[in-house]
Write a structure and sequence with these properties.
Elements lengths: L1 E4 L5 H11 L4 E5 L2 H13 L4 E5 L8 H12 L4 E4 L16 H29 L3 E4 L16 H8 L1
Parallel strand pairs: 1-2, 1-4, 2-3, 4-5
Helix pairs in contact: 4-5
């Protein structure tokens, strides 16, 4: 079973489809319930069992309950793909970047993935398998002039 955090219309949806074709059950996690329901319906038409979990991933404190709800409905989590994106502060030229812009991104892009790892790690360590895919963007590796808001926080999460 794969839990896709940030399951929207882009990469998260593609990851859900790919793993679904490989026989994985899929937990779709994002804020927008309607968008999640649409994606779950599309996946069902393709033969993939998908369940919807609406959550604000900018709230790390909610992760333990979210992981418990996913496990209760779908069983053990084999793979996590974490790739939600916030474009509100992402397209910030370096000359305009300030601490406040970075502060707003830290929960979503750094703290919540840490909480997700902490929630699944005991089971994964015991089993000796599983995977965490952090798919946040290339600006974590290669600085880009107009993505200064996202890059530093993504780079911190990558480390």
């Amino acid at each position: 079973m794969i839990a896709v955090f940030g399951a929207g219309t882009g990469l998260g949806a593609s990851v859900a489809r790919r793993f679904g074709r490989e026989g994985f059950r899929v937990a779709l996690v994002a804020r927008r319930q309607e968008r999640l329901q649409t994606l779950a319906g599309e996946l069902a038409e393709e033969g993939t069992e998908a369940s919807v979990f609406s959550a604000d991933l900018a709230e790390p404190a909610g992760v333990p309950a979210l992981i418990a709800a996913i496990r209760d409905r779908l069983g053990r989590i084999d793979v996590v793909e974490y790739g939600p994106i916030s474009t509100a502060e992402g397209f910030t030229p370096a000359a305009e970047l300030d601490a406040a812009a970075l502060q707003e991104l830290i929960p979503l892009l750094l703290l919540t993935p840490v909480e997700v790892v902490q929630a699944v790690l005991p089971e994964w360590t015991e089993r000796g398998d599983s995977a965490f895919l952090l798919t946040q963007g290339y600006s974590a590796v290669q600085p880009m002039p107009h993505l200064s808001g996202l890059g530093p926080v993504m780079s911190a999460a990558r480390k």
